[in-house]
Amino acid sequence: MSSKPDLLTVARLAPFLMEPLQRAFTVHDRLHEQDPAAFERIAPRIRAICGSGESKVGAELMARLPALEIVSIMGVGYDGVDVTAAKARGVMVAHTPEVLNDDVADLALALMLNIARRIPQAERHVRDGQWPAGPMPLASKMSGARLGLVGMGRIGQAIALRALAFGMPIAYTARSAKPGLPYAFHATPQALAAASDFLVVITPGGAATRKLIDAGVLRALGPNGYLINVARGSVVDEAALIEALKQGTIAGAALDVFENEPNVPAALRALDNVVLVPHIGSATTQTRHAMAARAFDNLQAHFAGQPLPSAVPECR
Ligand code: NAP
User: Fold this and answer.
1) Which residue's alpha carbon is nearest to atom 39 within ligand 1?
2) Would you say the C-alpha torsion 247, 250, 254, 259 has a positive or negative sign?
3) Is 180 exposed, middle or buried (0-12, 13-18, 19+ CB in 10 A)?
4) Where are the alpha helices (DSSP H) in 75-153?
5) Annotated catalytic residue 117
6) Which residues line ligand 1 (CB under 6 A)?
7) Smallest Cα–Cα separation from 226: which of 253, 200, 249?
8) 42, 6 in Cβ contact below 8 A?
9) Average pLDDT over residues 6-28
10) DSSP per residue, 228-252
11) What pLDDT is attached to residue 69?
């Protein structure tokens, strides 16, 4: 009989996380999805869950795991975890903030440049042999344009630092103003959009931010404005966005996240004024290793009776 705690994975985790997990735990790999009968047999023993930022850990799953003590998410966003239900049961929830700030901020700037300068279209222009037939249409300048950040947390601040190097005036909205930061605060996304050329969304997902970016915000952003979403697909009303892009209500959008990943509506994929990437905000080798190490450290600290390196704020 093994003395290792039983752990359930709820995502396809990278080998560099699975290997340490398998050394320290008896790992049941997504058994709830693959073999419901086997899951029922081991459910009473499960003391930990490990998943990714996209994982769903609802009240129903937790209710089937009477010995559950901790949910460790490899990601900073934990909107898929029912933290209220976890807290009610005394289950700790941990995530991996900070270590991915650079990568997500880098991607936000890359998306801003890609949509404004039409880099994917320019690349296709050369690759498809269209250059001899004539030049590309002119693009939009990013340096000096006004940046609006919806969310001014860890990643929002990392984006702002990078944008300063592009000479961009910076404004933001958040739940509250940050008097310590030298950027203009707007009380609503709509007011911020009206004062922005690039509107970058970097809030958490979940009920509180659902469709925060709606048709009204897009109208306020206007026909020369670009929307960049590196937060969660749920924060943007995708149907309203598609309509705004088709009608020229906004100039373009660059998106890392979508409402129903990995499915991206054909109507969005058919548009030319978008740049679409498959949720790669933190997807570098260096950062994913750092996230895996933190997700593992949170679990190890819990079972060693030590404080967690990064419990979510609700569980601190
Ligand atoms: P954070 O430090 O907690 O910052 C979140 C910011 O959003 C804060 O400024 C917060 O306002 C603001 N906010 C929260 N709820 C809001 C609301 N209802 N209305 C307006 N603003 C609201 O989080 P972070 O580390 O920067 O990460 C932010 C999010 O990025 C994550 O939760 C995740 O969803 C997303 N993310 C995406 C990727 C990717 O691969 N694309 C990777 C990592 C993270 P206050 O400051 O006033 O509290």
Assistant:
1) 281
2) negative
3) exposed
4) 83-89, 101-117, 119-127
5) no
6) 76-77, 97, 100, 104, 151-156, 173-176, 202-205, 208-209, 212, 230-232, 256-257, 279, 281-282
7) 253
8) yes
9) 97
10) EE-S-GGGB-HHHHHHHHHHTSSSE
11) 98
CA distance 30 to 56: 12
Nearest atom in ligand 1 to the alpha carbon of residue 107 is 41
Nearest to residue 207, comparing CAs of 84, 91, 61?
Answer: 84
Q: Taking the CA atoms of the chain, what radius of gyration do you get in angstroms?
A: 21
Length of the chain: 316
Looking from the CA of residue 256, the nearest atom of ligand 1 is: 41
| 170 CA to centre of own chain | 21
Q: State pLDDT tens for residues 125-184.
A: 999 999 999 999 999 999 999 999 999 999 999 999 999 999 999 999 999 999 999 999
Q: How far apart are CA 155 and CA 201, in angstroms?
A: 10
Ligand 1, atom 12, residue with closest C-alpha: 151
Identify residue 93 by its one-letter amino acid code: V
Task: Tell me the per-residue pLDDT of 35-79, one tens digit each, with 9 for 90 and over.
Answer: 999 999 999 999 999 999 999 999 999 999 999 999 999 999 999
Q: Please state the rounded mean pLDDT for residues 216-227.
A: 99
At 199, list the tokens. 């509107």
